[in-house]
């Protein structure tokens, strides 16, 4: 298992690489290029600069998160082939600089959704939360709320240039149901997986967050059965999954450790986001510290499922609290995610030594 830490780059992240380097056990930075428009080729020069900076801090960059899929591909427009060719070139460019895993999603319009970015906990820390009753029928209201409460940060999946066209986007998706979205995913995978096999780069699809339809938009990666269907779209280990314990865990019917065991053993899960959530009622939750006792997920069971299945991929702590006066990017502060990484590494060490 290799522990990583998501970083949004020197231009848009108050966290410094040297601070990440000081977190015990963290060897990988999960990076991305946020200044390249969705659908365009990631230039080699920008990838080289990103990797050089990360390596100079004594860290590695084997995983890239958020080579986002252009909406024309998800919708199935005739122009999708141009964007797929660009994606193939980006895969080849990333492979040239040692990238082994690309985390992506296939969610229409919204990559993730929360109704509160600063939900206050009893200890006076704050987290992101989802309360279904706070959703309105107008998605523009949710966009405005996210934008007005993001502390000036551009949040992944909420890029202003896309969301400025929200009415146009919803119109474009009006005929895209679950079947059509799945068919469009297959078209995409059939085109890119041969390139992934050639370059030894694994695509790792992220679950829907929350794992339920919203605003009438389809969702196709919500549970174990959806994963089996996606797996069957293109039979290759390069068509694989990011297992996000928080996203899947938001539905209490999902047995997250069982999902980990099944797909790790089949070598279809090279990347895991390990985080905890706390249910407040059916379908509602807030995020929590990683410690099992702080949330509704048993993180020991999660790590044991990884260990028992022979997991040797990449993992990172995911959304955490803002604590100790930190006023950073919602969900992505330094301190609580650093505590999470240390806690997860401690569980892993205990599991490893229990085998001896």
Q: What do you see in this structure?
A:
By secondary structure, the chain is an alpha/beta fold. It has a single domain (2-354), classed as Divalent-metal-dependent TIM barrel enzymes (TIM Barrel, Alpha-Beta Barrel), CATH 3.20.20.150. 39% of the residues lie in helices and 16% in strands. The chain has an eight-stranded parallel sheet. Strands 5-6-11-10 form a four-stranded antiparallel sheet. Helix 1 (17-21) links the parallel strand 1 and strand 2. Helix 4 packs parallel to helix 8 (178-199) and helix 12 (299-308) crosses helix 13. The longest helix is centred in the middle third of the chain and has 22 residues, at 178-199. The chain is globular. The two termini are 17 Å apart.
Strands, total number: 12
Per CATH, the architecture is Alpha-Beta Barrel
Molecular shape? globular
CATH fourth-tier homologous superfamily: Divalent-metal-dependent TIM barrel enzymes
Spatial separation of the terminal alpha carbons? 17 Å
Q: What does the main sheet amount to?
A: 8 strands, parallel
- H/E series: EHEHEHHEEEHHHHEHEHHEEEHEH
Predict the CATH topology: TIM Barrel
The level-1 CATH class: Alpha Beta
- Computed CA radius of gyration, to the nearest angstrom: 19 Å
- In spatial order, strands of the major sheet run 2-1-12-9-8-7-4-3
InterPro entries: Man_deHydtase, Xyl_isomerase-like_sf
Catalytic activity: D-mannonate = 2-dehydro-3-deoxy-D-gluconate + H2O
Function: Catalyzes the dehydration of D-mannonate.
Pfam families: UxuA
